[in-house]
Amino acid sequence: MIVFNLGCENNHRFEGWFASNEDFERQSGSKLVTCPLCGNANVSRLPHAPHIGTGGKQRPASPAAPAQPQQQYANVGKDILARMVEQVLENTEDVGPAFPEEARKIHYQETPERRIRGTASREEVESLKEEGIEVVALAIPAHRLGKTH
Length: 149
Ligand SMILES: [Zn+2]
What we know:
Oligomer: single chain
Number of helices: 4
Bound molecules: zinc ion
Mean pLDDT: 81
Helix content: 25-40%
Radius of gyration: 35 Å
């Protein structure tokens, strides 16, 4: 079998399978080869366009779709993290389990804006985020837990 790239008078392109070149000539001469899209019988062979220019390096496809957002990591050392935590501890008010409630009050300006920290369940954090309240998870070293200011 031979595959020919064929085109009709209406610029439709399609593939035709034939036993041989003569088979194609015979069938197209008898108007037996018709365009599958419009039925046009004036079908001619096209140069093997799909194979032109594909030799060598493959060109990059259209601009890559934006990648899925990924978790971000920083390779800061442990001491920097510890200092960050210290800063947060020094500059936030520990409201404990009242954190979601207090965070909401601050967000809706029912209480003076201030930095707070505390505990919240994953569900509470999710609903805070849905309300547009920014919270970050804090990894507080065990030796700092339970310490009150
Ligand atoms: Zn056609």
